Amino acid sequence: MNQPKILIFACKWCGFIGADAAGKKRLSLPSRFRVIPVECASLVETDAILRALAEGIDGIAVLGCHAGGCRYNNANHTSIKKLEILQDLLDTTGIGSNRLLLSFGTAHEDHQFEELIKNFFDELISLPPLDPWLSPFGVTS
Q: What does pTM read for this prediction?
């Protein structure tokens, strides 16, 4: 069985701290994920998520600060709204919103990051491959 590939956009003030601590402690995590630190989760563009899915990434996680705890004038509120709309689009197209994990306020500690990623990985294992869904849109992986 192929292991899902996960791309994680992690706010450097929250999610990335948890990812870094989990790595330093060598916690048991799936091997096929990559973390991209971002200044703020609000900087993650929807087209970057769609391109990653089209290129063969099985799931995308966006990890940000607590609502109300953002260092950039609550920019994560905008991010949450934008990404929830994207989840609706993913459901409408048949790709599935469960391929986009949104976590605002969790995963800032190593054990939270570990649990979040393991649960997301388990969810992705149960999903069919993306290729059949992307081909009607003229996108190839």
A: 0.88
